[in-house]
């Protein structure tokens, strides 16, 4: 069931307002509160089992952990708020591409809403660019803000194994309508692409998450390959 605004911790509202003010927003406190409420509602829809308020809160927390490596932490925080604001798990294709997160649409939403809140256009554009950097999780070399956002978003890969299993189950629940064979193919491809990267985490502090993340991903990949092999043959 989706999370109502009244169920959300109060800090969501103040967190958004602080970041927006830090980015130069000139809107009233009520307008900022309304914008935060709208975003919380987006993150609280029933279809979200992993890409939900908990994931948003975790991403914001990780940004705070890595904030000393950023050039403009408030812009990174705003990008975290918007990075999965537009979401759809309707088709297998959306999962294979980006796990349901509609990154270009989320970037455009960030640009539009932040500009309406009085954030200077150049800074709103920068937030949108940071959101766009998550499309393939391959930020440009030297873009430390994008690297921090990437690492914060991917940090769930490095949690304790029992929590990783819950994460993997939540991802599967978001795509419960996709047949198991199709889901396994897509998920295996995603995990294999991750493991082929030279580095999953790109910021200096985020590098500490590399080994536990790879161990988790390798364990899941091994399990899914076994599940795939146990499926009955496909009909000709």
Automatic annotation (TrEMBL):
It comes from Xylanimonas ulmi. One of its GO terms (molecular function) is hydrolase activity. This is Putative metal-dependent HD superfamily phosphohydrolase. Keywords: Hydrolase. The lineage of its organism: Bacteria, Bacillati, Actinomycetota, Actinomycetes, Micrococcales. Transmembrane segments: none annotated. InterPro entries: HD_phosphohydro (IPR009218).
């Amino acid at each position: 069931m989706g999370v109502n605004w009244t169920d959300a911790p109060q800090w969501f509202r103040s967190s958004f307002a602080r970041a927006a003010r830090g980015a130069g927003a000139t809107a009233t406190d009520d307008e900022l509160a309304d914008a935060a409420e709208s975003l919380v509602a987006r993150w609280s829809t029933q279809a979200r089992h992993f890409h939900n308020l908990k994931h948003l809160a975790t991403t914001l927390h990780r940004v705070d952990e890595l904030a000393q490596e950023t050039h403009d932490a408030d812009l990174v925080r705003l990008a975290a708020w918007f990075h999965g604001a537009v979401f759809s798990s309707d088709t297998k294709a959306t999962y294979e591409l980006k796990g349901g997160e509609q990154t270009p649409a989320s970037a455009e939403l960030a640009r539009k809403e932040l500009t309406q809140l009085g954030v200077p256009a150049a800074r709103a554009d920068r937030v949108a660019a940071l959101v766009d950097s998550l499309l393939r999780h391959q930020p440009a070399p030297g873009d430390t803000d994008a690297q921090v956002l990437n690492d914060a978003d991917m940090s769930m890969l490095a949690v304790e194994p029992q929590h990783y299993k819950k994460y993997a189950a939540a991802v599967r629940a978001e795509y419960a309508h996709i047949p198991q064979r199709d889901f396994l193919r897509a998920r295996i491809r995603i995990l294999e692409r991750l493991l082929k990267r030279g580095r999953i985490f790109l910021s200096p502090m985020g590098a500490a998450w590399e080994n536990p993340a790879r161990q988790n991903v390798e364990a899941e990949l091994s399990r899914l390959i076994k599940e795939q092999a146990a499926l009955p043959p496909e009909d000709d």
